[in-house]
Amino acid sequence: MYKLSSLQAARGLAALMVVAFHSLFISTKYVESENFLPEIFFFGQTGVDLFFVISGFVMIIAFREKFGKKGEISDFLKGRFFRIYPTYWIYFLAVFLVFQIKPEIMNGSQGGNVDLTASILLLPASTLPLLMVAWSLIHEVWFYLVFAAILLLPSKWVPSAFFFWLATIICTSLFAATPDNPYLRVMTHAFSLEFIFGALAGIAYLTLSKRPMTSPRTAVLMAITGLGAIVYALNEGAVNGSDVIQSISLERAFAVGGGYTLLLLACALQESNNKLKASSFLKLIGDISYSLYLSHVLTLSVCGRVWQSLGHTGSGAWGAIVFWAVSYSAVILVAYLSYRLIEKPLLTLTTLYKRSNLVKPPSVAKGDI
């Protein structure tokens, strides 16, 4: 019941949306045909919003039986640490080496200023991480820390804890200015609302999926409402060019995050009723989505530099078609190889490590020492 391929497919879609968004910047820098890519690609930045919603949903589904039990926080945090950091550090090291050789091509938008300690540990800082896309991982780390605290609570108190967190973020967004302190900024950021929405959707799913047959009309209504909210956000400018790392509006959090939440819940319920089959391609992209997220800007940048060195900049529409066909193929290929050669082996190693620690050595009587 709880192995939902629709969640993995949604993860793949979110990753592709982020790739589309960053393509706009690569196009402007290297291809000089920025009008070739559709304007809807700008909305691809909300792939991050979708990632946060999925994260909250998955946490509830994966740890539904762990609330209120002793020793779960330690296991949870270890699991999250091994899931995020080892693969991230591989990419951080690659970028760091380039930074040492040619610092001018890294973080040029902020003059090469980087807090290396914060970048390594994924801590909030006043500057972007060295691997720029890692800014969203800083929010993920914060979500996991709060979720770890909620794991202490009995299951019946979990919804209340999330609603309390929800109310706290809303009140802070309404009545307080965006903090200058980077730690407070992350703690009070409205992106937390999207993680909370996902978690509440996960709780709703656990209840609704136990019923013999949830009415298809319920899922359809959810999907229509969710799509309506996202279209509203698109038409009303809730997703704009503002710095989302500093803050996002409550309008965006509710319209985009809430819209994706309803769509995700509707798909999950339809899948539980055997009325939805997720795309195999999107599931594959979902499998490699973490490697794709970490590597795609690097891959696109390399493709852009090669294209520029070959003298094809400004080569017109057909040149742009060739560039993007090759670049997007390279993005998926690099991510797949990264998943198979880096991410998956590291996950296997960490899983073996965790299992070996679960095997306790036999007790030894004092007289045997």
Which structural traits does this protein have?
69% helix, mainly alpha, single chain
Task: Report a brief summary of the structure.
The chain is mainly α and 369 residues long.
Characterise this structure:
It is a single chain. By secondary structure, this protein is mainly α. The protein has one domain. Helices cover 69% and strands 0% of the residues. The protein has 13 helices and no strands. The radius of gyration is 22 Å and the shape is globular.
Low-pLDDT sequence parts: 359-369
Count of DSSP H/I helices? 13
SSE class = mainly alpha
Q: Tell me about the largest β-sheet.
A: none
Give the helices and strands as they follow along the chain. Answer: HHHHHHHHHHHHH
Total count of domains: 1
- Which bin fits the share of residues in helices? 55-70%
Shape: globular
Radius of gyration: 22 Å
In total, how many beta strands? Answer: 0
DSSP strand (E) fraction? under 5%
The averaged pLDDT comes out at: 89
End-to-end Cα distance, whole Å, is 50 Å
